[in-house]
Amino acid sequence: MTAVPARHLAPSALTLLVGACGVHYERTGIAPLPAGPGIELAVVQVYESLPLHYYGLRHTLACRSPQTAAKAANRSDGLDPGWVAVGQLPGVPGHRPGRAVREKGLADAAAAAAAALAAGDGWIAWRKRVLRVSVDSCSSFAEFVPWRSLPPGDIEPAPRPDFCRPEVDCRHFDFEGGREASFPEITVQRLPGEPAKWRIGAVVRSAALRDGRARRVTSDDLGATWRVESAGP
Fold first, then answer.
1. Of the candidates 78, 130, 197, 223, which lies 20 to 30 Å from 54 by C-alpha distance?
2. What residues does 54 pair with on adjacent strands?
């Protein structure tokens, strides 16, 4: 397991008051995760107090490497400079949760993060609801967001809340409530030539797909565009 030095992520070091409305973020725990050469991974737990809106624990999978050294801090996620958020994990609602609740929440989030990660030779991927692939040690990510990247004709729309209007983007509701996308197969291939180019491929499954068939998606430009084709049943 890759250790996260205390000088970089000290839970007691980050207690923040933001603005004058009582918004409060406090880092309450860190769980290092195994990682490949040259990177560090950790689940960071933050207690979030948003008066009249939400009280509870939030969990973020974070990554650090020499390539992310210039990244700015993300205070609401509890991340110091040099760390970047990879994905969000299930939270635990509740006002000022005790130690046992915090520890269980962090352990559950670490297990969920491990299940959501995939890695290969020179790449790492997050595959929970969306696909995010990095080939440069977390400095940048190619993204496949199902409700934005799939052709509208491939998606069976879900019922929308009343507040959804033409000017409000509610497409993400098509991939919630048991319709979340999964990515059981991911391939990352470096293409010949310089500068380096990569081909990223994945199989996408979701109950939101209109014909019930999986899709195979491919990008040769780090997620700027995606080719979509049927992948069979």
1. 130
2. 50
